[in-house]
Design brief:
alpha/beta, 29 strands, 5-stranded antiparallel sheet
């Protein structure tokens, strides 16, 4: 029996919205929909274009094609579903067709019980009201409903992007009405004066309430950002939305109000210029002023010097380029990672029968959600498996492919199962749903995966040997003990001995120890080979009939022993058993290690390359 550890995590479904970068009408709908979705502010908005526009990089560094940029966004965010602002935007992305939705598919009109995708915020609002907001509070809650002034109608998109907005279509007004009735927010018209007031208070908006009680693990530890942007430009709004979904501290500053907001911004830059907590080396936090791509390069320094620059050494940081989150991280740097959202998490251990490996577990669900919902998929669970035995008999890691749900299947009733960098992701509709997954061993897992790529494969002889080596040594941690060219050469030399693949015990130990003597990363190599059963202790006895030496296991020793060369019996040297002329303690190779020619290809001289779950050859 093997023991498998598992961690299951509940999170909102992640939608990626595809939209043309100049489509203001669709962009407003996207902001409104995400205001109504659970944790909607973390759903990315991906600009779609056929050729890379000139404004994409002010320095004309066009390293990627348009398709590479779009797919780069997808690879970074790994969405569960794609949502098209217009039909056909996802036609070239090789995404599961039944996971491509339209804007009208997400929210269901009031009163309807069937339809929609994801979990809307209405259940969350009711739960917050029952637990918190129905009671009279001592301190006033700064919940704001922020809208543009009548004379600033062009700021409607900016307000929806920054603070949230509710749809006004027929049948959708109940979201806004519910927010107003439950939270009784202050209605504020956005202006330069109220902007400063809002952002110097501990305020909450509908967009923030949408991810209440969710733990957000940001992997970005860079300095906070002031994002100077054109409040009327949809390109900048998309950039700001995605930037805020990846970093914890980003504040948008409308270019139209930069003069009026100058004192507020300067004060913010000064206050954020402070020592990094816990760092003894004098490293300072510095607020970075990032200018959006719509702002001409020639205007940037003039704007900064006129309205944002402060008289404080080291506090002024200007950035005129947008972080390329669509670009894969270089291999020599830490991988750029999106935030991880966690609403619940649970760990459990289970015993696995290696003949019929399977696990049973219950999915996690939001406590505030209704028992039954009309949406086909309401939330996501992410499962990670870990085999702590080190034997690697059960496949716990799978090739990532968030675009396709063809593999793995686990012979379960799951509608969708995605292998992502987060883990194995699946979607639920009901609470307390139980799951039974039939797991695969490593070899079966790889063969099945290759079959989805139309590649038939069989386990080669070298692969079988490699597999037995891995199992014998207890997994890849044990394999590390023979990953040394001199150890491999010694084992191969012993295996080629004509009569018995053995070596005198002290000599074997001393030679293994000498190989790794000056290597601080290697220890207990000899002990591992003995304890894991790669070699077996026995006696080499000299036959008194033919004079040859032969190895004999301890459990086969008696007053008379058989000579493997002359096939005759001779008496055990009872009179002088310790004499080196009659007997020697010796270790003999066993199992796959006894095979010659570097274990028939299981390992090779000069280096060890142990492929996961054995080597496969194409049929």
């Amino acid at each position: 029996m093997s023991s498998i550890s598992a961690t299951i995590r509940l999170r909102p479904i992640r939608f990626a919205f595809l939209v043309r970068p100049n489509d203001k009408v669709s962009l407003l709908k996207i902001f409104q929909i995400n205001t109504c979705l659970w944790a909607g502010s973390f759903n990315p908005i991906i600009p779609v274009f056929s050729t890379v526009p000139k404004w994409w990089d002010r320095h004309a560094h066009h390293f990627e094609k348009a398709s590479q940029i779009i797919n780069g966004y997808l690879d970074y965010f790994e969405p569960d579903f794609l949502v098209e602002a217009e039909a056909g935007l996802a036609s070239t992305l090789e995404f599961d067709k039944d996971r491509i939705l339209q804007l009208s598919s997400l929210l269901k009109p009031g009163g309807e019980k069937v339809g929609g995708f994801g979990l809307d915020v209405f259940d969350l609002y009711r739960d917050l009201y029952r637990k918190e907001f129905q009671f009279v509070r001592r301190s006033e809650q700064n919940i704001f409903d922020i809208r543009c002034r009548p004379k600033d109608k062009s700021f409607k998109l900016f307000c929806a992007c920054s603070y949230g907005a509710f749809p006004t279509d027929d049948g959708m007004e109940y979201f806004g009405h519910g927010f107003s009735e439950i939270f009784n927010p202050k209605n504020i018209s956005l202006s330069p004066e109220t902007f400063s007031e809002i952002h110097t208070s501990n305020f909450t908006t509908s967009l923030k309430i949408g991810h209440s009680n969710i733990k957000i693990n940001y992997f970005d530890h860079s300095d906070p950002v002031l994002f100077v942007m054109n409040a009327n430009d949809p390109r900048d709004l998309i950039d700001y939305w995605n930037l805020r979904a990846t970093k914890p501290d980003v504040l948008a500053i409308p270019l139209q109000w930069i003069e009026a907001l100058s004192p507020f911004c300067k004060n913010l830059i000064k206050r954020n210029h402070r020592p990094l907590p816990g760092n003894p080396n004098g490293i300072m936090i510095r607020l970075t002023t990032m200018f959006a791509r719509s702002i001409p390069t020639d205007d940037i320094l003039n704007l900064y010097n006129a309205y944002l620059k402060v008289d404080q050494d080291g506090a002024n940081v200007v950035q005129d380029w947008y972080p390329p989150i669509w670009r894969p991280s270089p291999s020599f740097s830490v991988r750029r990672t999106r935030p991880i959202l966690t609403a619940k998490e649970k760990q459990f251990d289970t015993q696995i029968n290696e003949e019929f490996p399977q696990i049973r577990f219950n999915s996690l669900h939001p406590d505030f959600a209704e028992e039954f919902g009309g949406a086909d998929f309401r939330w996501a669970n992410v499962l990670n498996l870990r085999d702590w035995t080190g034997e690697d008999r059960i496949a716990t890691v799978f090739p990532c492919n968030y675009k396709s749900s063809t593999y793995p299947k686990f012979r379960s009733q799951l509608g969708k199962l995605l292998s992502t960098t987060e883990g194995l992701t699946f979607f639920s509709r009901f609470k307390d749903s139980s799951n039974i997954w039939r797991l695969d061993d490593g070899t079966t897992a790889i063969k099945t995966w290759l079959k989805t790529l139309n590649i038939e494969s069989n386990l080669s002889d070298a692969g079988r040997t490699t597999q037995q080596i891995i199992y014998t040594l207890g997994g890849f941690w044990g394999v590390d003990k023979i990953a040394h060219k001199d150890i491999i050469s010694l084992l191969n030399k012993i295996s080629r001995q004509p009569i018995s693949p053995s070596m005198q015990a002290d000599e074997f130990k001393n030679r293994i120890d000498a190989f790794v003597k000056n290597d601080i990363w290697r220890h207990k190599n000899f002990e591992t080979l003995v304890e894991r059963g790669a070699v077996e202790l026995g006696l080499e006895l000299k036959c008194i009939k033919c004079g040859s030496w032969g190895w004999h296991p301890i459990n086969r020793l008696s007053n008379e022993v058989d000579c493997r060369l002359c096939l005759k019996k001779f008496k055990f040297p009872l009179v002088s058993p310790g004499s080196k002329h009659n007997s020697k303690w010796a270790y003999r190779l066993v199992g796959p290690f006894v095979l010659p020619d570097f274990a028939k290809g299981g390992y090779v001289r000069g280096s060890v390359n142990m492929p996961s779950f054995g080597q496969l050859e194409s049929a």
